[in-house]
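Hi support team,

I've been running sequence recovery on a batch of backbones for a student project. Most finish fine, but this one hangs at about 90% for roughly twenty minutes before it completes. I'm not sure whether the input is malformed or the queue is just slow. I've pasted the structure tokens below so you can try to reproduce it. Let me know if you need the job ID as well.

Thanks,
M.K.
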């Protein structure tokens, strides 16, 4: 009998998988493989298959024979492709570790960024890049994420230390902290870990890797993921895949950044590029509310070449997948990378407009269009709403991005 394949590699324009394999690789892993095969700039990496997660739970948190060897072989292949080694004190490879089930569970499971950095590697990264601020920023971010997700240290303790560091310098933004400030913050973060757990922050990159893989598999059964699956009626899935991917850095400086975008407006369905980005930031910053992101349209003024390339890639992906795409991207020193694409979630009105427009554009059939409008979408459309004819005369008291169809209340109801 053929040996079960536990790890699937993607990189250098070819992948051991494709978009049809979401029940093997998860949605994220399957689409990373598909994008790699399409020649889209995707940082290389490997996916640990969903069956490994199922076996992990069946064996009470233990891996079946061969899994650890296969993962470490995948890591060696990645190191060869990247010409870097995890934890190297002179030129370290850093990786992200992310979940990816067959169905989309946005934000429900755990992610680790900048894995592989330690007390020696941070010095090597600083010297190699000539950018000590970037190196110490990467280290403090890793300690916070790993400490929270893997070691169970409450994230508020790190946030309080960060706020205190900014207050001491009388500054508002993380980006205003110097390399020295961040080095001091790293030492404070390590003290927080020691005080909270009784353990030193791990320096062995393989220990960091397996701690993160265990945590991502473990997050399949965390409370928020279970509740989300119940709410969305997501059933009969074995678990999550784990994607280990070489890092690209949006926090490298003013010529770097990160963002999320949709090939069409997910609120209205209009065929307009929609999204947000931040310069000198990593992906978590865009959704964390620490800084106010820029609208994606502003990128055309700030970096016309990257914006044009991004437009071309989102058009290519939408045409290939024949659906509105939700894309995550990073720019490192003026070079664009895509980290994820998936069919974008949309409001009820957007679902109807996208379906109708895509039929008119000969992208999908009428039968496909009908199947894309769910009962939930129709329920949203039937909610009472303010008459569009009078909206323009209404007094605006605030602005923001909606997270639901919304509700309106009359003052005399209270």
């Amino acid at each position: 009998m053929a040996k079960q394949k536990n790890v699937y590699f993607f990189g250098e324009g070819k992948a051991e998988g494709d978009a049809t394999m979401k029940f093997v690789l998860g949605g994220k892993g399957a689409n990373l493989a598909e994008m790699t095969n399409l020649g889209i700039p995707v940082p290389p990496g490997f996916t640990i298959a969903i069956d490994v997660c199922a076996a992990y739970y069946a064996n009470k948190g233990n891996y079946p024979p061969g899994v650890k060897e296969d993962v470490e072989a995948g890591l060696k292949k990645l190191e060869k492709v990247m010409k870097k080694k995890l934890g190297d004190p002179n030129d370290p490879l850093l990786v992200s570790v992310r979940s990816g089930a067959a169905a989309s569970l946005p934000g429900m499971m755990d992610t680790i960024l900048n894995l592989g950095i330690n007390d020696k590697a941070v010095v090597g990264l600083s010297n190699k890049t000539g950018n000590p601020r970037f190196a110490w920023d990467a280290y403090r971010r890793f300690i916070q994420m790993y400490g929270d997700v893997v070691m169970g240290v409450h994230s508020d303790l790190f946030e309080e230390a960060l706020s205190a560091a900014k207050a001491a310098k009388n500054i508002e933004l993380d980006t205003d902290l110097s390399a020295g400030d961040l080095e001091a913050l790293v030492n404070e973060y390590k003290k927080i870990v020691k005080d909270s757990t009784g353990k030193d922050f791990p320096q062995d990159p393989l220990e960091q890797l397996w701690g993160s893989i265990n945590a991502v598999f473990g997050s399949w059964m965390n409370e928020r993921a279970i509740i989300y699956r119940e709410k969305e009626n997501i059933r009969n899935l074995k678990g999550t895949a784990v994607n280990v991917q070489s890092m690209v850095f949006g926090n490298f400086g003013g010529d770097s950044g990160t963002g999320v975008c949709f090939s069409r407006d997910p609120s209205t369905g209009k065929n307009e590029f929609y999204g947000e980005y931040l310069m000198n930031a990593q992906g978590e910053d865009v959704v964390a509310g620490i800084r106010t992101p820029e609208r994606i349209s502003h990128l055309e003024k700030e970096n016309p070449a990257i914006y044009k390339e991004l437009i071309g890639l989102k058009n290519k992906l939408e045409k290939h997948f024949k659906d509105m795409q939700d894309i995550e991207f990073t720019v490192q020193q003026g070079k664009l990378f895509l980290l994820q694409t998936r069919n974008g979630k949309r409001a009820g009105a957007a679902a109807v407009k996208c379906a109708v427009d895509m039929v008119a554009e000969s992208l999908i059939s009428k039968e496909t269009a009908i199947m894309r409008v769910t009962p939930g979408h129709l329920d949203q459309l039937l909610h009472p709403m303010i008459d569009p004819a009078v909206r323009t005369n209404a007094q605006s008291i605030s602005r923001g991005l909606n997270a639901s169809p919304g509700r309106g209340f009359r003052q005399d109801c209270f």
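--
Follow-up from support: It reproduced on our side and the slowdown came from queue contention, not your input. The chain has three domains: 1-118+204-247, 129-201, 248-386. No action needed from you.
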